[in-house]
């Protein structure tokens, strides 16, 4: 790291103190210093409590109530702190769905997650992509932000007690940002003169927020024609100069996005690397990627220090997800030429976990749970509503290896819905074969308990929520045999290429392709995935009702609005070939389908539609999954899986025999 000092936004001769019309000079001599901690939460997804609503039990490994403990500890450690949130806050749990869809909060009611956050005294935040899932009217209401957009609310409702800023989403009516693009927050901090004397001075931090531009694809049905979006760099270039004109001491960019060094476009989902290069930005807060920065995932990235937490010489942090972590940037500020500068050599970032070791998690903050107890209990009662029973165990354990028990009911429900609804709007498509695509959303990314697992016996709405994790709506697209194959080829990127002649161990799963993009398609088709071949050339023996699929064969594929509108960058899916955009949520469609099959048996579900192409290899093909689940593989017919090692932390390494 360079020994030079990094200049912050120029300090004005007079700093704002009290109301905007008053100011007073700050007389702080050069050589003074201060230590300031920037604290960040991100991607909490309304996991307020350490509780799993799908398993109806406590889960100490997540929950904002434990992040709150880390916040209090950090404030005790650092006398000068600012606390910000990088978005994906109001959606993502049963509690969130209950307050948005089942019993929507009134204008005078504050969301549970915001009530919890208000106890910690945030200084600001931004909106993530999932903030838009429930529509602009709901977002306008619960953030207390009147919006001049179709469907927005004009009045002030109860929202968080801290400012939300967002600079790259604009009203289609008047072109103005739907949130304030930026603001300035001021706190009195402790600083020290060169002789060691402690002084109290104001520190003014400008904040500017950004959300992923692809929201216009992911939530096209709710946002199309209502708002427009710009790239994050374009928005920064427009608004950072306005913010600099307020002469803050420091500018913090709060981005709901990660890091990507691919060539920049205005639609880039994770534009943090490029945002760090915009002049005037001094600190970068990241999110969206559900990982940690600094951390090994970003080791080796150009101009990124993944150990100390710098992106292009800008201090940065990404504080995990689901309330599992707290991001901390420890800034050292030095006074030079009448302004503050960042001492890069003594500044660093870190991510502090709520569970530093297995079974050693920090306690929950006692002030959080009582605030939302009534809503929490109501959400539990809601998800326990009976909808039928099942004779089957439906799980996503080994979903990557061919266990489709958790996906088959989703696909069946989607197919039945489209077959019933499509002829009304497109009678010319009534005889086109209908397929369905579903991905296992929970495949262990969040830990050994992050799997769908619905036991045989009574089914409740909780079961449907477990089988379908996100509040997507259903969409159907028209394609052909070539498009179907391209869809499957993209999904097959989930796997690494396997060299049959390599004697050593080879990992099955690609670390660069997330599980929720591994679509598995059913509806009368069957196909093989040949892992000896390169990407885009792996799908073989693709057939429909026993006959080979030709490139020109027409198909309708039921999926969700995210995928149909371009989510996951699947070829041919950009929203232009949607033939049915359902107003109903996929989860609700699934719940109704389960009610129509009050005693679910195996004949109600289509068997697995694909297999790996047989391959003899010299070394083991391994993958990591939840421990002690080998019996699940056997029940669903995956006899080619064996246990290699149980790690004692809830996970295990397994091997799959591709020759069988």
CATH architecture of the largest domain: 4-Layer Sandwich
Query: What is the name of the CATH topology of the largest domain?
Result: Purple Acid Phosphatase, chain A, domain 2
Which residues form runs of ≥5 with pLDDT under 50?
1-25
Rg over CA atoms, rounded to whole Å, is 26 Å
Tell the overall outline. globular
Quick structural gist:
This protein has 15 helices and 39 strands. With 660 residues, the chain is an alpha+beta fold.
Q: What features would you describe in this structure?
A:
- The protein has 660 residues and is an alpha+beta fold.
- It folds into two domains: 6-20 and 32-376, Purple Acid Phosphatase, chain A, domain 2, CATH 3.60.21; 385-609, 5'-nucleotidase,  domain 2, CATH 3.90.780.10.
- Helices cover 20% and strands 28% of the residues.
- It has 15 helices and 39 strands.
- The strands form ten sheets. Strands 10, 11, 13, 14, 15, 16, 17 and 18 form an eight-stranded mixed β-sheet that branches. Strands 1, 4, 7, 8, 19, 20 and 21 form a seven-stranded mixed β-sheet that branches. It has a five-stranded mixed β-sheet with strand order 29-24-33-27-34.
- The protein starts with 5 loop residues before the first strand and ends with a strand.
- Residues 1-25 have low confidence and may be disordered.
């Amino acid at each position: 790291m360079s020994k030079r000092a990094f200049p912050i936004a120029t300090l004005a001769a007079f700093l704002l103190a009290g109301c905007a019309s008053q100011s007073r000079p700050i007389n702080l001599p050069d050589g003074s210093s201060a230590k300031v901690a920037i604290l960040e939460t991100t991607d909490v997804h309304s996991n307020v409590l350490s509780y799993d609503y799908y398993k109806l039990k406590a889960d100490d490994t997540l929950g904002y109530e434990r992040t709150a403990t880390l916040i209090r500890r950090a404030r005790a450690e650092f006398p000068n702190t600012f606390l910000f949130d990088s978005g994906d806050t109001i959606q993502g749990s049963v509690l969130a769905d209950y307050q948005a869809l089942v019993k929507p909060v009134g204008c005078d009611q504050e969301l549970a997650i915001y009530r919890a956050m208000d106890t910690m005294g945030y200084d600001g935040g931004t909106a993530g992509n999932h903030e838009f899932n429930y529509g602009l009217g709901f977002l306008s209401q619960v953030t207390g932000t009147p919006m001049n957009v179709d469907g927005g609310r004009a009045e002030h409702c109860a929202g968080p007690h801290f400012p939300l800023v967002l600079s790259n989403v604009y009203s289609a009516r008047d072109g103005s940002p739907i949130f304030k693009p930026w603001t300035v927050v001021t706190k009195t901090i402790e600083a020290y003169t060169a002789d060691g004397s402690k002084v109290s001075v104001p520190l003014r931090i400008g904040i500017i927020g950004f959300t992923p531009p692809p929201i216009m694809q992911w939530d096209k049905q709710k946002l199309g024609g209502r708002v427009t979006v710009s790239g994050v760099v374009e928005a920064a270039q427009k608004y950072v100069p306005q913010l600099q004109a307020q002469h803050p001491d420091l500018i913090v960019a709060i981005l709901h996005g990660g890091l990507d060094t691919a060539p920049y476009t205005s639609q880039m989902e994770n534009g943090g690397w490029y945002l760090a290069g915009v002049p005037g930005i001094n600190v970068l807060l990241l999110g969206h990627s559900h990982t940690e920065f600094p951390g090994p995932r970003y080791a080796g990235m150009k101009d990124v220090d993944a150990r100390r937490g710098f992106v292009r010489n800008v201090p940065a942090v990404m504080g995990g997800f689901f309330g599992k972590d707290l991001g901390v940037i420890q800034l050292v500020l030095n006074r030079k030429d009448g302004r503050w500068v960042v001492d890069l050599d003594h500044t660093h970032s870190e991510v502090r976990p709520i569970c530093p070791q297995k079974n050693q998690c920090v306690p929950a903050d006692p002030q959080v749970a009582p605030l939302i107890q009534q809503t929490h209990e109501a959400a539990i009662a809601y998800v326990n509503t009976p909808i039928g029973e099942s004779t089957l165990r439906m799980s996503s354990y080994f979903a990557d290896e061919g266990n489709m028990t958790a996906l088959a009911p989703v696909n069946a429900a989607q197919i039945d819905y489209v077959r019933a609804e499509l002829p009304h709007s497109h009678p010319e498509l009534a005889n086109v074969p209908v397929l369905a695509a579903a991905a296992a959303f929970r495949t262990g990314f969040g830990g050994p308990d992050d799997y769908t697992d619905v036991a045989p016996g009574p089914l409740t709405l909780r079961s449907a929520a477990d089988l379908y994790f996100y509040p997507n709506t259903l969409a159907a697209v028209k394609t052909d045999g070539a498009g179907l194959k391209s869809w499957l080829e993209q999904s097959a990127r989930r796997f690494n290429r396997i060299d049959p002649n390599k004697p050593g161990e080879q990992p099955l799963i690609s670390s660069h392709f997330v599980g929720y993009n591994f679509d598995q398609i059913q509806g009368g088709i069957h196909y093989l995935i040949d892992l000896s071949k390169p990407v885009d050339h792996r799908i073989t023996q693709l057939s429909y009702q026993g006959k080979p699929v030709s490139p020109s064969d027409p198909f309708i594929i039921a999926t969700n609005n995210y995928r149909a509108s371009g989510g996951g960058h699947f070829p041919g899916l950009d929203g232009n070939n949607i033939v049915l955009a359902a107003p109903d949520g996929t989860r609700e469609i699934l719940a109704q389908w389960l009610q129509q099959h009050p005693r679910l048996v195996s004949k109600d579900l289509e068997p697995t539609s694909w297999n790996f192409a047989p391959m003899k290899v010299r070394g083991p093909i391994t993958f990591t999954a939840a421990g002690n689940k080998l019996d699940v593989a056997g029940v669903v017919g995956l006899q080619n899986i064996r246990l290699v090692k149980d790690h004692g932390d809830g996970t295990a390494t397994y091997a799959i025999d591709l020759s069988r």
